[in-house]
Design brief:
Length: about 425
Amino acid sequence: MGKLIASPLRYLTFVDDKQLFQATLGLKAPWFVSEVKLNKTDKRLDIFIDFERGARFPCPECQSLCELHDTSQRTWRHLNFFEYETYLHARVPRTSCPKHGVRQVDLPWARPNSGFTLHIEAMVLALSDEMSVAGIAGHLNVNEDSIWRILQHYVNEARKDVDLSQVEQLAIDEFAVQKGHRYVTFFYDLKGRKVIHIAEGKGKESFASFVQAVEGRLDPKKIKLVCMDLSPAFIGGCRETFPDAIMVFDHFHVIKLLNDTIDRIRLEEARENQLLKKTKFLWLTNPENLEEWQERKLLQVKDLDIKTAKAYQFKLAIQRTWQLPPQLAKAYLRKWIRWAERCNLPEMEKLAKSIRNHFDGIVESVRQRVTSGYAEGLNNKIRTAFRRAYGFKAKEYRDTMIYLVAGGLQLPIQS
Ligand SMILES: [Zn+2]
């Protein structure tokens, strides 16, 4: 691939261009480059490939050499040669195998039914790491739909290769596709830290979709632990789908609830207290992640006699639960609940009740030392990718994007 890009265009006029292209395309007998046409006005390069007379080809099914049945003319888009848009042309043979009948042979430069060469597809995959689909499309002068279809193909193939047989722990999380309007549910391999399934919605039906998707590759009865938030739909779905799994409500999800509660209290209070305007970030970020100026700002408000500051203290306090050994954590969390249930902040009292109702699952997260905190990082990456892919239409493309970013896939990058 590199060689083709690196070769100066002037080479074309000096060396035997057929041989040059044969080498850079890696063609072996019976295939050879029969003609190269360079159109300087249209900036277009056409490379014609043919096979030796009387050649026989392996049946794609059993690999035994077979007689030629017929051919059909095809064209593939190839990597640009400098600014020259490049196309390959060949007649594609079909073999007639005594065992498997008439079959199209495997081509060394393209996969079946693709209008693109493997070289350009490899380039698409390599660029997808850094560039938006629109960016790749512009760079290669190929339409966006084609780029999506290439990515989709390789993502789907790579997903088939993901080994789920050892997965015993899952994390489940909801994700807003359109802010607050539509949700999908992500099923993570908790230890592998990757999205293994995307289900529409955030209810029980998401679990059915998961079971169907992993059928034959993962036995739901073998799932021993599920890490998730405290939503009744998830809890119900989990009980039904993974009967032998312990439900765990981890640090990440509990703190998310605390943050939601603090922010509701702050919004209410900010109507009368100007000091609270534009302070959302201060209350919701871990103190150690604040920048110096933010820390200074927090210091000005956190000890004030205001509801938001009080709620914030509850968050700092509950965080200690996960720093303690399980037995102490249990007693500590009980104390926290009793304190929070009588704090005169109705929002916080409501949350304390919910924490009490999910006590075992929270303590379990301390005992098991599991967290799905990394999911937040992945979700941010997905959100960034969404912004980059602004304008992608189909749901399949959306999922392709998510698996690309968070699926931990091994994509075949040709070299
Ligand atoms: Zn055969």
